[in-house]
TrEMBL record:
Residues 12-123 form the YheO-like domain. InterPro entries: DauR-like, DauR-like_HTH, YheO. Residues 150-211 form the Transcriptional regulator DauR-like HTH domain. Pfam families: HTH_22 (PF13309), PAS_6 (PF08348). This is Transcriptional regulator.
Length: 218
């Protein structure tokens, strides 16, 4: 899909040939979207292919917005994760953030690959060559991969501590919950249960930690 390149940030425009080449190489099941974050309400400035159903001028997605809110210019790339679209299709995705010369994040190069044909081939193969292991390998993540992002944030926070969770005292776990609260993690639905499982306490303990932390800041 063509776009007037003089309307795109020059740094982002450099990635347009790569978007076209990758989409052409991978075929009709692939879509490449380039986002420009200076105008989030219409952040999609270039599209090669069409999988998700967006258009040039579509707004920034919720997961991208959440990543930027939590990490700012230090936002990490997230590659090779799966997500489910609203119509039930599974896609394989990667988000690569683009920075200017000062290190400021200005946009994102997003790869979305529709797995429908691969899944159909897998199903056909399994019908003809049955396997004992019927485990489904695709995740049931919501559109945008918020669950994947939450998992990564919790993992990154835990990795800062040298002690394994099994040896942590309450004060260590309290500090972890405080750091996650400051990042806005508990605004995400289901985050309390995920954090509780990660640090080996009950969800009620996490709520108690939050009450204790927030009371101390008043």
């Amino acid at each position: 899909m063509s776009q007037a390149l003089n309307s795109i940030h020059p740094k982002l425009a450099q990635y347009v040939p790569f978007a076209d080449a990758l989409a052409e190489t991978l075929g009709a099941s692939c879509e490449i979207a380039i986002h420009e974050f200076s105008h989030p309400e219409s952040s999609v400035v270039y599209l090669a292919g069409n999988v998700v159903g967006r258009q040039i001028g579509s707004p920034i997605t919720e997961p991208l917005q959440l990543q930027l809110q939590l990490y700012g210019d230090n936002v990490p790339n997230i590659c090779n994760f799966t997500r489910r679209l609203k119509d039930g299709r599974n896609t394989k995705c990667s988000n690569i953030f683009i920075r200017d010369e000062q290190g400021k994040v200005i946009g994102c190069f997003c790869i979305n690959y529709d797995l429908s044909l691969i899944e159909a081939m897998k199903k056909f193969t399994e019908e003809w060559i049955p396997h004992e292991d019927k485990t489904e390998n695709l995740s049931e993540e919501k559109y945008g991969g918020i669950s994947h992002i939450l998992e990564q944030i919790i993992s990154d926070t835990l990795s800062r501590y040298s002690k394994p969770v099994s040896l942590m005292q309450k004060e260590h776990k309290l500090k972890i919950v405080e750091v996650l609260d400051e990042k806005g993690v508990f605004l995400i639905k289901g985050a309390v249960d995920d954090v509780a499982n990660a640090i080996g306490v009950s969800r009620y303990s996490v709520y108690n930690y939050l009450d204790e932390i927030r009371a101390a800041k008043k």
